[in-house]
Amino acid sequence: MDKRDLLLEIGCEEIPARFVQDAIRQLGERMANWLTAHRISYSDIQTFATSRRLTVWVRQVAESQEDVYEEVRGPAERIAKTPDGKWSKAAEGFARKQGVSVEQLELREVKGEVYVFANRHVPGNRTTDELIKGIHEIIAGINFPKTMRWGSDKTRFIRPIRWLVCLFGEEIVPITFAHVRASNISYGHRFLGNKTSIASADQYVDALRQQYVIVDVDERRQLILDQLRQLEEKHNWKIPVDAGLLEEVVFLVEYPTALYGSFSKEFLKLPKEVLITTMREHQRYFPVETKDGELLPYFVTVRNGDDHGIETVAKGNEKVLRARLSDARFFYEEDLKLPIDQAVEKLDRIVFQEDLGTMGDRVRRIHSLALQLGNQLQWDPSRLEKLDRAASICKFDLATQMVGEFSELEGYMGQVYALRHGEDKEVAEAVYEHHLPRSAGDRVPQGSLGTILALADKIDTIVGSFGVGIQPTGSQDPYGLRRRAAGIVQILLQEKWSAVSLTQLIQLALDRLEKEGLLKIEREKVEKEVSQFFALRLKAVMQEQDIRYDVIDAILSADLADLYLAVSKAQVLMEQLERESFKLEVEGFTRTANLAKKAKEVHLHRQELQEPAERDLLQAYDEASEQFNKAREQRDPLMMYQAIAHMVPQIHHFFDHVMVMVEDERVRNNRLALLKEITELVRQYAAFEHIVFAS
Amino acid sequence: MELQQMIIQLQNYWSKQGCIIAQPYDVEKGAGTLNPMTFLRALGPEPWKVAYVEPSRRPADGRYGDNPNRLYQHHQFQVILKPAPDNIQDIYLGSLQALGIDPLKHDIRFVEDNWENPTFGAAGLGWEVWVDGMEITQFTYFQQVGGLETNPVSVELTYGLERLALYIQDKENVYDLTWIDDVKYGDIFFQQEYEHSKYTFEVSDVKLLFHLFDAYEKEAMRALDEQLVFPAYDYILKCSHTFNLLDARGAISVTERTGYIGRVRHLARQCAKAYVEQREKLGFPLLKQREEDHNG
């Protein structure tokens, strides 16, 4: 069958840079899925995108759909045949409906009944006809976080669609979407280019290049990087490239030309991050440094166009930056006039969350949690004093103008201002560090003050939010609760902080919120939901360590107070899986646990255990308990496991020689009680019934 | 180009595009969007094209005439086209050329910016337009006004005149801008800026303002009960400005704030609904007129 290339370009008004990458991925996937679902073969798919177009190029697309041969079951033979063996009206009707003659009908038995079958042949439609019908499904199905309507049309898209190019080989496919009809005319750069007709898909990239549009995303990115490198070489600079900013710039311009400008050295007195953030967030500029990483009074911007009037563009940008930096300097100087304690008072005027009060309320909760933790860790009075101060001021920078302008500088400005106001170095550092980790790969706080504050801050937000019914759903997590929970897990997984128990952290937060009447949902329910929420985060951590899913389940069903120990226990189990006798041990634990379930309100009367096998088991249990507790105190997971594994021979011996479910209720209950106690001990390690062995 | 010349150029340009050139509305407001020529006319199915200069008051931005950029009152040049023409971006770029900005010699970009005024139940999607890194226009497709979905969608273009003039005249300080001939911006507005700032932050009678807010609100409701949309809307604007004055003074606590905003929002929604009902009762006269034009 003949094959042709398919080209679809959706021409838009400027699509927000942050959405383009994902939109183009979706368009490619949707096209591929649609072709496959419609039995249209193709060889491969490539996508292009700029701020004004989303394009997909499919190579070697079949002229038409593949034919379909399908077998359709009709009526049973007793209905399809008349008593004299001829085809009935029903059979004739069925054949007609399936487009075959009665002679082509076949008889076959299915589950004891003979039926009539028709072999239907559905010839494939022309690809272009299918496209005209299917285009709406392909384009309208692209998901954007925010869509809009324009003009009088009801269609929603990220921004207005102004043209469509759809070519199959050299033929225009007259698709229509949002009242726009496809042609072979595309549009070049807004100012440097013109409209241009595209002969066929393979001409697309070059035709647009002639109109000053670089449609290939990677090529455009590389062009920008090359231009940055040229500037670096020419001026002996280093231009640190923020990946997110580069990605945004790639989708802000269709024809990139990097240029630089300068600003007054006076501004270099501002904290470095303030300068970088002002340039990045307001203007999408790259900062410029010396080879040694010292910030220079220059910036690099990437213009959408060529070098026409480039001095004017540079001069204009310098002027804008001057105003922006003057603002930043104004904020900085004003902020320094605000004493920290006054800033803290202002927090009572900033709402955190309607049901959870102001930032001031939140700081008081964090303060109380942090001090309880400090006390419990038996910190000396001088450390506690620092913790007290750090907790009291940890959010003060929220009341500063700089953080009001750039929320991403929260914490950083806090540390800068705290130092300028003569706060203790560690205290100032904690104001920054308690926000850590900010994302999945980020570092945890290094200082102890920052660590305790980070735990208190995050747990208050998580438990507080759950307590008023705010939980992450699907991709929605406006309060960053998942990130915060993952942060707590990351902190507690460090051995040096394993003395802080997650369970206790949750309880402390619940106590405080309950005392303030901020729990809108029943305490027990919140506690359960929060624990499950953390279990999921812990699960993710273990999955990353390639711990088997059944081992994860076994560990998550056991005691989770100590996260560090939980993960270490899982690692030990992964090692045990290698040992042959492990299966026997798991069977012993599982058998015990299964019988123990039958134990109701029973109490162990040790002296009433008379059979030698049960006396031996009791003794093994006592020894195991003692060993286990010792091992747990030393937080040695291997020794903990060995302690319980030590009982296994006696467990099997017991089951071989002792009948548990005997008539005598007292004897029976006493044996069940013994098994229950053993199970409770084993459960402190893991719920072994989850472990699966390949048979 | 002098500021006065810029205004004349823009008026001429948009007049040629078929806009009514309206005059500023005489009730205090925070943005040109709140002029009834925009807020109300963007509602319902009737076509509408208008352009006007709007002096916009933002009490909290008052700086006693000290700040080179921030003002108690600045000027917006506002354009509304309903429905939004398909080639609106090109038409808009034409207006920049009318101001002497040659797109080939500058870097002009449309950078995502979604606009929202929750108090007036209004929201739109669009961009801020940058010339060489400077934001000169807010370009918005209204999606919702007064809590009602817009249909058809209007496009709103808001030029910040002072900012644009700073760029065109290559000045650093708004007070140094030339309005016309040897008249500077500062000659006209400095004293006004200073006095309004002083009034807003130091002198305003908070008790009176609270009382006025209540009184304006009551009167807006009464007018709405009488189906008088335009008078009601004037009082809603007064409520909004009074709230802004109180807020700038720091007289409204965090917890009260939501309540006051909610009261204005409620009125704005009622008014938007009433406006559409009124126009419907009148048979959407502008819609008919257009059909007649087409048929004639």
What is the gist of this entry?
Chain B: One of its GO terms (biological process) is glycyl-tRNA aminoacylation. Chain A has 26 helices and 17 strands. In chain A, a hairpin with a 7-residue loop joins strand 11 and strand 12.
Describe this structure in words.
- The complex is a heterodimer of chains A (about 700) and B (about 300).
- With about 700 residues, chain A is an alpha+beta fold.
- Chain A folds into 5 domains: about 150 residues, Alpha-Beta Plaits (2-Layer Sandwich), CATH 3.30.70; about 55 residues, no CATH class; about 120 residues, no CATH class; about 190 residues, Hypothetical protein af1432, CATH 1.10.3210; about 110 residues, Isoleucyl-tRNA Synthetase, Domain 1, CATH 1.10.730.
- Helix content of chain A is about 50%, strand content about 15%.
- A 5-stranded antiparallel beta sheet of chain A has the order 2-3-1-7-8, with helices on one face.
- In chain A, a hairpin with a 3-residue loop joins strand 16 and strand 17.
- In chain A, helix 12 crosses helix 16, helix 14 runs antiparallel to helix 15 and helix 23 runs parallel beside helix 26.
- Chain A is flat, with a radius of gyration of 35 Å.
- Chain A starts with a strand and ends in a 12-residue tail after the last helix.
- In chain A, about 40% of the residues are buried.
- Chain B is of the alpha+beta class and about 300 residues long.
- Chain B folds into 2 domains: about 200 residues, Bira Bifunctional Protein, Domain 2 (BirA Bifunctional Protein, domain 2, 2-Layer Sandwich); about 80 residues, Up-down Bundle (Methane Monooxygenase Hydroxylase, Chain G, domain 1), CATH 1.20.58.
- Chain B contains 9 helices and 11 strands.
- In chain B, the strands form 2 sheets. In chain B, strands 1, 2, 3, 4, 5, 6, 7, 8 and 9 form a 9-stranded mixed beta sheet that branches. A two-stranded antiparallel sheet of chain B has the order 10-11.
- In chain B, helix 6 runs antiparallel to helix 7 and helix 7 packs antiparallel against helix 8.
- The model of chain B has no long low-confidence stretch (mean pLDDT about 95).
- Classes of the chains: A alpha+beta (about 700), B alpha+beta (about 300).
- Chains A and B meet through strand 15 and helix 9 of A and strand 4, strand 6 and strand 7 of B.
- Chain A: One of its GO terms (biological process) is glycyl-tRNA aminoacylation.
- Chain A: It catalyses: tRNA(Gly) + glycine + ATP = glycyl-tRNA(Gly) + AMP + diphosphate.
- Chain A: It holds the Pfam family tRNA_synt_2f.
- Chain A: Its EC number is 6.1.1.14.
- Chain A: InterPro entries: DALR_anticod-bd, Gly-tRNA-synth_bsu, Gly-tRNA-synth_heterodimer, tRNAsynth_Ia_anticodon-bd.
- Chain B: It is found in: Cytoplasm.
